[in-house]
């Protein structure tokens, strides 16, 4: 749930967990490296998703920061513990519409809430949606020690000096029994017709009075969490990646000046090197997936982000990846039972 705690209030979009995008992953299939796996996780309660929302995975295949391919996921109203999902695949101009347009490639697919995923195929595309074990690992109490020593949460001021050389970390993974609602797609990489690395991002939009309101977005892990504020997160979540550099660069530079004593020039260089802006996950399928090239379940993205924020001053947490992930689709393990 690296994208879960957005802004200092840590609240979900519009106070509704169903609208909360938690993590985005992109990697080669471990059994066939000619296929790409995309996973968008939402709703940290791992319950049914919002029936009035459009959940989307969007892909830029040519580097112009504009969608070229988009998968849209529309979920039914849950009835007696059952929910279904329709999946649309749009290309070209249609992929830039916020509406679920394009070819409907899956219809009324049952969402799984038990241990057995409902894996379905349409041609060479594989799909599943439902409750799964969350692969994200982090030490939340350690993060609070790092940023919340005074009792007032402030993600702009890591308290490394106040710790006097002591580690902020507790050594305990806060997410060992967490579940999440997972949307997983696997397809042949060559069907994306990419010209070099692809850029992927997720969006959640809620239909209100006939209009889609963009309420959350996901790209780089833990970027929105640490770089956003309560004052800006609504605007940030509603904005488009193509506008990120012009709109958000100064805010990101300002934060890095506080957290890592970056000069403006050094902050811009670091942002450019990582590709932090635009907030889209970059993945070159010709290279092994490891963040920031895509993202896999073993990536310690919190250690990575805190090292980025502090110019390497924050010590690593020492946590290990979860061991219940799978080598076969849908890759995340069965959900934990209460």
Characterize the structure shown.
- The chain has 338 residues and is of the alpha+beta class.
- It has one domain (13-310).
- It has helices at 140-147, 223-227, 233-238, 244-260, 264-274, 301-310; strands spanning 21-29, 32-42, 53-60, 69-75, 84-91, 103-110, 120-122, 125-133, 179-188, 198-208, 211-218, 281-283.
- Strands 3, 4, 5, 6, 10, 11 and 12 form a 7-stranded antiparallel beta sheet that branches. A 5-stranded antiparallel beta sheet has the order 1-2-9-8-7, with no helix packed on it.
- β7 and β8 form a beta hairpin.
- α4 (244-260) packs across α5.
- Pfam families: DUF4331.
- InterPro entries: DUF4331 (IPR025566).
- Residues 316-338 are annotated as: Disordered.
List the topology elements.
Blueprint: E1 21-29, E2 32-42, E3 53-60, E4 69-75, E5 84-91, E6 103-110, E7 120-122, E8 125-133, H1 140-147, E9 179-188, E10 198-208, E11 211-218, H2 223-227, H3 233-238, H4 244-260, H5 264-274, E12 281-283, H6 301-310
Dominant shape: globular
Determine the mean pLDDT: 93
Please report which band the strand proportion falls in: under 5%, 5-15%, 15-25%, 25-35%, 35-45% or over 45%: 25-35%
Order of helices and strands: EEEEEEEEHEEEHHHHEH
Helix content: 10-25%
Number of helices: 6
SS elements, strand count: 12
Alpha-carbon Rg, integer: 19 Å
In terms of per-residue confidence, which ranges show pLDDT below 50 for 5 or more consecutive residues?
none
Largest sheet: 7 strands, antiparallel
The total number of structural domains is 1
Distance between the termini: 19 Å
Q: Find the structural class using helix and strand composition.
A: alpha+beta
């Amino acid at each position: 749930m690296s994208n879960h705690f957005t802004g200092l209030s840590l609240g979900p979009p519009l106070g509704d967990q169903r609208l909360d995008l938690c993590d985005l992953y992109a990697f080669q299939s471990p059994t066939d490296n000619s296929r790409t796996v995309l996973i968008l996780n939402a709703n940290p309660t791992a319950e049914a998703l919002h029936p009035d929302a459009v959940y989307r995975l969007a892909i830029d295949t040519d580097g112009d920061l504009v969608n070229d391919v988009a998968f849209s996921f529309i979920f039914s109203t849950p009835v007696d513990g059952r929910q279904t999902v329709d999946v649309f695949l749009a290309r070209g101009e249609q992929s830039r519409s916020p509406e679920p347009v394009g070819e409907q490639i899956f219809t009324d697919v049952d969402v799984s809430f038990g241990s057995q995923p409902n894996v379905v195929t349409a041609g060479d595309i594989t799909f599943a949606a439902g409750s799964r074990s969350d692969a994200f690992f982090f030490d939340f109490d350690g993060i609070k020690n790092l940023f919340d020593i005074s009792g007032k949460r402030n993600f702009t001021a890591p308290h490394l000096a106040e710790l006097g050389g002591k580690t902020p970390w507790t050594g305990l993974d806060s997410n060992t029994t967490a579940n999440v609602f997972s949307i997983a797609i696997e397809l042949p990489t060559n069907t994306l017709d990419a010209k070099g690395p692809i850029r992927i991002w997720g969006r959640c939009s809620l239909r209100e009075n006939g209009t889609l309101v963009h309420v959350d977005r996901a790209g780089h892990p833990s970027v929105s969490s640490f770089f956003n504020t309560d004052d800006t997160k609504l605007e940030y979540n509603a904005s488009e990646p193509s506008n990120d550099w012009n709109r958000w660069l100064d805010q990101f530079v300002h934060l890095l000046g506080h957290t890592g004593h970056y000069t403006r020039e050094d902050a811009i260089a670091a942002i450019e090197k990582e590709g932090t802006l635009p907030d889209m996950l970059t993945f070159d399928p010709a290279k092994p997936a490891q963040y920031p090239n895509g993202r896999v379940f073993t990536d310690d993205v919190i250690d990575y982000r805190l090292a980025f924020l502090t110019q390497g001053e924050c010590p690593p947490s020492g946590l290990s990846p979860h061991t219940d992930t799978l080598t076969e689709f849908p890759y995340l393990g069965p959900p934990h039972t209460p």
